[in-house]
Amino acid sequence: MTGAMYPNVAAFTVPEFRTSSISGVTPDQLFKTSSLLSAPGQPLEEELTKLYTDNPAAFIYAESNFYTLKKNTRVPEVCILGRSNVGKSSFVNALARRRNDALAFVSSKAGKTRSMNMYGFGPAPTVKELQAQGSKYKDEDIPTHTFHLVDMPGYGHASQEEWGKNIALYLSKRQAVKGAIVLIDAEVGPKDSDFHLLQLLSAAQLKTAIVLTKADKVKKGWEGLYETSKNVWQGICAIEARITDGNWTWEKDIYVTAVGARDTAVARSTVTTARLAVARLAGLVKDERPNVERNTRWSGKMVSFDDLQLAPSTVGGSPKDSHNTGKSARPTSESWKAKASELDEGSRAHACTFYSTVAQRGKSSPKQPTRAELDVILDNFIKTLKTDTPRDQARRVQQERERHPPKIFKTSFKKQEKRRALGLQKQFPEQTIRTRVVLDRRLEIEERRRQALDAREAKSKTLIESEWPAGEDVGSSKDANHTMKVNEFDEAFAASKGLADDKEQERYS
Ligand SMILES: Nc1nc2c(ncn2[C@@H]2O[C@H](COP(=O)(O)OP(=O)(O)OP(=O)(O)O)[C@@H](O)[C@H]2O)c(=O)[nH]1
Ligand SMILES: [Mg+2]
């Protein structure tokens, strides 16, 4: 990151072997050894900007249920996972260089995203590319982007048990998913639920990258980031030691980002790091780092003396050798079965999955984890998901209301009044009938009064016309007689009106 306040670190690289510690990498160091496959040798930062923004990112669709997701065999999907409020949706917006809420909805309250939201990034494939790809399904949508990013609901606070099952299904069954970005709050650090998710990812053998978010909020600066990265690394090492057989790949760069920071300069400075993390998982980046530094099938963990004793005699040499030859130096299933019996009760199930995972994702194998084994991992994950408390439910209702406010102004005021009157009529039928009778009577009186006035006006008109010869101007006349006549008429008219009114009153009262 740039700026005096923030450490200039884009990632912490995990060493291939446990003899050395993790080390900070500056943005320059991180970017100079990589380039896009579509633009070899070109500056990565510029090419990544083009990739993410030339063809504007777009919302494709949202789905809550795994079984009703659209078919997709052509576009690689990268999913964004993490605890509620860690900054997943902000991450999507930042990649697309959109302001908050422009693409994905962001909220300071946990539990904003409640469905799997699919966003398209990168240029649309050409016709040639599409033809080359082909498709298994006729009803599959024609791709409009290079890859999809899937913004997921968060786990932990305000999440649902049901959602845990959907995540697990998505990670283990969706063929299009090529990688998972796990976001971890840099200040808060990894939680049990994060490690349970990582266990699921390792069981599903899904390529994984860890991205620390909200680095701008880390009070201890570089030390704080280092501490969090180390905790993540140690937790993953423990998972690897128990459940993988070396086929789970996790990026050895723990990326540092602050894409949703209020300070836009800070936010912008880490966007390239975030873009690189996603592009790598989508399979769009060529890395030119020396092989020993990059993570391959061999996780690079040190094998303890005990493990070595349990390892089959056919596997010789150092882990480094095995890495270079591409062969796994992992112990065989038999020796690990023995080892599993030494493990504590909780981890035994994980140890079982260690030797039963398949070599390649998607390929069926008799070694695939059994349903029961996956269920144990899943149960652990689901245990970390809180079911709704009444407070959570109230918050959800509130959020729903914010999203779909009641349509109070859709009907006109007149219609509302009429509806209310009808409601009242139903509620108080007796009063309504009496009110209606009185109202009808009043209207009747009003009508008669109006008719009487009209008749009187017509009568007075004829009176004036008979008194005054046609063509004479009443107003401009200087004749005293004429003036008197007008006054007399006024008085007579006023008297007749009063009488008439009295009579009317008598008639109708
Ligand atoms: N300071 C800082 N705040 C951030 C950063 N990233 C996200 N935020 C804030 O964190 C809050 C949550 O962000 P979201 O992107 O909605 O988080 P989410 O993980 O999608 O949350 P859910 O959808 O509820 O699971 C918002 O208030 C963001 O502004 C960051 O890098 N730095
Ligand atoms: Mg969200």
From TrEMBL:
Region (Disordered): 310-344, 458-479
Boundaries of every EngB-type G domain copy: 74-277
GO molecular function, one term: metal ion binding
Database matches in InterPro entries: EngB_GTPase, G_ENGB_dom, GTP-bd, P-loop_NTPase
Polar residues composition-biased segments: 325-335
PROSITE patterns hit by this protein: G_ENGB
Pfam families in alphabetical order: MMR_HSR1
Keywords per UniProt: GTP-binding, Magnesium, Metal-binding, Nucleotide-binding
Lineage: superkingdom: Eukaryota
SUPFAM superfamilies for this protein: P-loop containing nucleoside triphosphate hydrolases
GO cellular component, one term: mitochondrion
Protein name as catalogued: EngB-type G domain-containing protein
Organism this protein belongs to: Xylaria bambusicola
